[in-house]
Every structure is written in structure tokens, then in C-alpha cells.
Amino acid sequence: MGRTAAQSLVAWLEELGRISDEPDGLTRTFLSPAMRRSNAQVTRWMAAAGLAVREDPMGNVIGRLEGPTPDAKTLWLGSHLDTVRRAGRFDGALGVLTPIAALAELRRRRVNLPFAVEVIGFSEEEGVRFASGYLGSKAFTGQLRPADLALRDADGVTVREAVARWHSLTPGRSIPVRSSARGGRPGDRLIPFPSSRPAPSSLLGYVEVHIEQGPVLERERLAVGVVSAIAGQTRGRIVLRGQAGHAGTTPMALRRDALAGAAEFVRFVESTARLRAPLVATVGSLTVTPGAPNVIPGEVKLSLDVRHPRDPARRAALTHLLAEARAIARRRGLKFTWEKTQDDGAVACAPELTARLEASVQAVQSRSVTLVSGAGHDAVVVAAVAPVAMLFVRCRGGLSHHPDEYAAPADIGVALDVLVEFLLRLAPPAAAAKRKSSR
Ligand code: HGY
Ligand code: MN
Ligand code: MN
Asked: Which of 391, 411, 420, 430 is the most exposed place for a label (fewest CB within 10 A)?
């Protein structure tokens, strides 16, 4: 007896979760060797499910199932294949592999859908390497700005250079390259990515399956739920520059200690967010230079991530935080710089598509709940060109961005059933009749 679609899906998640840039734990960042291996593996699963697979210049993997006619509309399904550092194996991957399993299941049932489907494995959703998320989905939907291509990673490599290195420059694969090795004018015209994506008018919408990364479904004792809105987020980099010096001979009153200033700011970020819930604000990374125990820290680079369901509240909080960072720098004789690397507004999911998804949830698990997502998702970007809906899957303790992130096979099976049901409901009664006969 062959594996069921759900058993295959769970096995794929395990296998993809082992494709990492690190020997211990799952880390798969933008344009890394592990990304190349995971793209190759997902390509194989997509091809085996009968999809025509291509990879675009930003390393997005797209598997296409043609519709019955060339003018058939297209439904997008997908999520991201990159991960944070020391990640869980479900964040992103679940939303790419579940649609592949669903289409493989419909193929097994010999159901032909009256529309085309594209399953997309987006790159660089997490924004670990370039501190700016959604670069893959922004490129795929034609929203990448020249400034995005000028973003630099910790080694000073720009997105444009990294992409050019990722691809052998083959004809027909026009990618943003620079004339000079360094620099590049911010206004550089972006060489258009191959616009192989369907025109917005021919899109049925985008549905993303994702672990909830929060506590609600566990509290509701439900395997899945639908998303009403996704919080907006601003990310950026702060640099505080003081004066390095001898830890033993420099009196405290004469110091310009960048780390002491950063520490004061980190505490302020936390206390401000606590007072302004549901605002969340995080300093996730902090780099101290020169970083020796007997040297006063001369420079600190720190990240700032600020989110809120309402954009005006997020913007007001950011202004407040940056004003305090400047005041701390002034008080301590530090130089302060701020570079915004990402700024995406909150997005409401499309009511009609979400209602369709909710009907499929009710058909499978007889009850549904609606949640707001504090986490960002590629759906935020895709919403600019297509109606979006999201299906959340329960994850243990709401834990994510952690090796212990876990979604139970039974819940993954429910999500798969819901997606199959959703696809069949988008099809005419003939396909629905097949649903009854082949269960
Ligand atoms: O950061 C986020 O919310 C998502 O995991 N990219
Ligand atoms: Mn994530
Ligand atoms: Mn994610």
C-alpha cells in the first residue's frame, strides 16, 4: 500500500528540513549552497506531481500546472523556502509542499481543474541575509525596487551582485547586473526580470498555507484556521559609534561606550512595546566592535524590527523609538545612524477568497476561527497584484523560528484535505462528483 498524500507530505517536510547550510540545525538563507540543494529537491517533487518547473532570477521555484485552455485563469499557491537561523522545518516549507501534495492527490484521482495552478517556492522571505524580507516575492510580482538591489549583506555584497553570482548569465535570463564592481547608482534602471508571470487580470488569487506561529489554534483545539489580516512591519539597522579604548585605564566619566548606549536603547525598545501592545518591537541582532573583553566597545550595529496591525501606530512607535535612540546617542556622545531596510504595511486578506477557504475548513473540520497574523508572509507582497487568503496550521506552543517548531502529522493532514477541498470547490460540479467517488 503506497503512502497517502499526507504521509508523503510529512516525509517531504522531514527531508527538506535536513537541507541546511549548518551541520547542526536548519539554516537555509538566500542564495546559499543549501538553497541550491533545496530548490533542486523541490523541483523534483514538483516535476513528479506533473508540474512544469522553472526558476526565476531571484531563485524562486515555480511549478506550473496548465489549465484546460491557454486563457484559463491561474491560481497561485505557495510560501517561502528560505529559513531563519536555527529554524524549524515547517515555517515556509509547509506552504510550498502542501500544494504539491494536493496537486499530486488530484492527479491520482484524475481530477482536471478548470484553471491553471502555479506553486511558488519564494526565496528570501525571511530577510536574514539582507535584513529585508520578501525580496523573492517582490521580484516575482514585479515590485522589486532598485534600492532593494543595492542592499548589502554583512560582507558588503549587494543583492544585485549576489544574484549575478548565483546565476551564470545565460541569454534570456536577464538579471540585474551592475556595470561596475562596486557602488552602483541607486537610480539604476532595473533590468526587467522575465515577466513570465500571468497578468493580474488572469489571476484567481493566492493562497498560502503556513504554521500559525502563535497560540490561538492550540487554545481553540483546532488544527487549522483562516487569516483575516497580516501585521505591517518595519525593519532597519542602527549603528552607534563611540570611542574604543582601554578597559583598565579609561575612567568611566570619560568613556563613549557604544554598547552601554545600545543596552539602554534595547531596554527602551522593550518597555515601549510593553506599554503599546499589540505593538511588538525587537532587537534581534547586535554586533559589537572590536569585541574584546578588555576594550571599551567603539561601535555597535543592531537590528530593529517593529510591527503592529495598524500602520499609523507602527509608524508612531518607530518615530518614538528612533527619537530616543538619538537622545541616548546625544547624551553619551555617540554618533547615530539609521538605515531602513524594509517597510511593509499591514494587509487585509481578500474577503471573498477567504470565505471560500473558510467554507473548505468548515467542510473538513466543521468549525473555523479567524486570526490576525503578527508574523509577516509573502501574502503581504502578493496582495498588491492578486486577492490573497491564508490557511494557518496549529503548531505546538505557538513556537516558531526555533528548532523545536512542530506541526502534528494529523494537523498537516487536515490542512492538505482543506486545500484539496478548496481546489475542488473552485472546480465545477463534475470534479466535485469525482471527489465523492474517489474518497
Ligand atoms: O519575520 C516574519 O514575520 C516572517 O517569519 N518572515
Ligand atoms: Mn519565518
Ligand atoms: Mn514564514
From this structure: 430
Q: Is 76 in the same domain as 96?
A: yes
Cα 95 to ligand 3 centre (Å): 9
From the number of C-beta atoms within 10 Å of its C-beta (0-12, 13-18, 19+), residue 4 rates as middle
> DSSP letters of 33-80?
HHHHHHHHHHHHHHHHTT-EEEE-TT--EEEEE--SSTT--EEEEEEE
Give residue 363 CA to ligand 3 midpoint distance, Å.
Answer: 26
The vertex-363 CA angle with 357 and 369, nearest 5°, equals: 55
What predicted TM-score, i.e. pTM, was given to this entire model? 0.89
Distance of CA 198 to the CA centre of its chain: 22
First to last CA, the chain: 16
In this structure, what C-alpha cell is assigned to residue 112? 482536471
In short, whether 257's Cβ falls inside 6 Å of ligand 1 is no
- Nearest ligand by distance to the CA of 122: 3
Neighbours of 308 (CB within 10 A): 25
Per-residue pLDDT of 206-261, as tens digits, reads 999 999 999 999 999 999 999 999 999 999 999 999 999 999 999 999 999 999 99
Q: Choose one of 27, 81, 84, 380 to mutate for the ligand 1 pocket test, by most ligand atoms within 8 angstroms of C-beta.
A: 84
Range of the domain at 375: 3-230+349-438
- CA–chain centroid gap for 13, Å, is 17
33, 132: one domain:
yes
The DSSP code sequence of 266-319 is: HHHHHHHHHHTTT-EEE---EEEES--TTEE--EEEEEEEEEESSHHHHHHHHH
Dist CA 84 CA 127 (whole Å): 8
> What are the grid coordinates assigned to 200, written together?
493580474
